[in-house]
Design a protein that fits this description.
The structure is a single chain. With about 425 residues, this protein is mainly alpha-helical. It folds into 2 domains: about 180 residues, Growth Hormone, Chain: A (Up-down Bundle), CATH 1.20.1250.20; about 200 residues, MFS general substrate transporter like domains (Growth Hormone, Chain: A). Helices cover about 75% and strands about 0% of the residues. It contains 18 helices and no strands. Helix 1 runs antiparallel to helix 5, helix 3 runs antiparallel to helix 4 and helix 13 runs antiparallel to helix 14.
Length: about 425
């Protein structure tokens, strides 16, 4: 185990996350499913919502489980369930409920189990580069749609939408299962050779490892939950309405708007790595403050723009901030509560993603219905970001002596 190359573990985690991030390519399946089976867009879109909600719940369960059985078992199970969910989805012809259960629930649970593993493992292997390494890992997740969408589109055209589920399910299962064998923890107490944490790093890190129960007893855990929730609400509100917003503001055609969506989606992946890397230098909380203030200005400015190029750039940066929340928060949680139990601690924190995926889109849709324009909704999000900027200013590492409990032994799976 001492001879394990941590960069090989990181590469396996990155490849695993690219495959898991294929879920972001769901829109590729939307029109073929509606055309072939007569389902409405809302009915088909609900599959994605169910999948993301199942993912957020399973991340917590997987985090608890990996502390008991080790990361390899959890990742392996996640890969099998994820692939199985897609394979079973290929039998959804004229059975919408079966699509919900297979892709939405089974696939979503598999996604959650597998998603939390590289994050929990890599923060232990890279205490010297927590932000950068978790950013790279979840950056793979953000880039998953870029890799999967064209492949899925080609398969749909040549073998049909349902058979595409089956082919992708087999391929995804193989990749995640193989990558899972590299998901191992370092020996307890291991640190990189020659690493000495800086004074800034030490000041922003907890003095001991917290268990899930002790972490939940601090106000800081809830503060981090809201930081992730608020940041995700802002970004996902734009993601949920990207194409119609672009068409409305620029009077561009649907084809041009779709191209803009593809370009700005890259920001989601880039931001996960960029902001996580930045956070290693300026700390996590100041990174969130910068992202919040930038989003305040960009969301306020967006409705007044009309140029396709300018709107694309502005939206790209907004999605960088959206991805930056997911890239930075795992390291944030490890800083404040220790890396030993970051799986369940951050896994439960990811429920913020599930709640935000409902509240963010609902906010902008309701504002649109009330005013007939996206301006009020985008300005409302801007104001929320401005008010939220207080939170990263006041948050600080837990310092109390009462919230810590006995550490949970880790499985190394040598």
């Amino acid at each position: 185990m001492h001879k394990t190359n941590r960069w090989i573990v990181a590469l396996a985690g990155f490849l695993m996350q690219i495959v898991l991030g294929a879920v972001y390519a769901w829109s590729v399946f939307r029109n073929p499913l509606t055309r072939q089976f007569g389902w409405s867009i809302a009915q088909v879109t609900l599959t994605f919502t169910i999948c993301i909600f199942s993912l957020s719940v399973a991340c917590f369960a997987g985090g608890l489980w990996l502390n008991k059985k080790g990361p390899r078992v959890v990742a392996l199970t996640g890969g099998v369930l994820y692939g199985l969910g897609l394979i079973l989805a290929s039998f959804s012809a004229h059975k919408l409920w079966w699509l919900y259960i297979s892709y939405g629930v089974i696939g979503g649970i598999g996604l959650g189990f597998a998603y939390i593993v590289p994050i929990a493992v890599l923060v232990k292997w890279f205490p010297d580069r927590r932000g950068l390494i978790t950013g790279i890992a979840v950056g793979g997740f953000g880039a998953g749609a870029l890799v999967t969408a064209p492949v899925a589109q080609w398969l749909i055209q040549h073998v049909g939408v349902l058979q595409t589920f089956a082919y992708l399910g087999v391929a995804f299962m193989v990749v995640v299962v193989v990558a899972s064998f590299f998901m191992v923890n370092p020996p307890i107490g291991w640190t990189p050779s020659g690493w000495n944490p800086s004074a800034t790093q030490t000041a922003q890190r907890a003095k001991a490892d917290y268990t899930l129960g002790s972490a939940l007893g601090t106000w800081q855990w809830w503060a981090l939950w809201f930081l992730l929730f608020l940041n995700t609400c802002a970004g996902i509100s734009l993601i949920s309405q990207e194409a119609p917003i672009f068409e409305k503001l620029t009077t561009a055609s649907a084809i041009v708007a779709a191209g803009m969506v593809g370009i700005v989606s890259i920001g989601n992946a880039v931001g996960r790595i960029f902001w996580a890397w930045v956070s290693d230098g300026i700390t996590r909380r100041w990174t969130f403050l910068v992202m919040y203030l930038m989003q305040f200005g960009l969301f306020w400015l967006l409705p007044s723009l009309a140029s396709v190029g300018v709107i694309t750039v502005v939206s790209f940066v907004i999605l960088m901030c959206y991805g930056g929340g997911f890239g930075t928060m795992p390291a944030f949680a490890a800083d404040y509560f220790g890396s030993r139990n970051v799986g369940p601690i951050y896994g439960l924190m990811l429920t913020a993603w599930g709640f935000a995926s409902y509240f963010g889109p609902q906010l902008i849709v309701k504002m649109l219905g009330a005013s007939g324009s996206y301006t009020r909704g985008l300005h409302a999000i801007a104001v929320v970001m401005l008010l939220s900027s207080v939170l990263p200013i006041v948050v600080s590492p837990p310092r109390g002596k009462t919230a810590r409990e006995a550490p949970v032994p880790q499985m190394n799976e040598a």
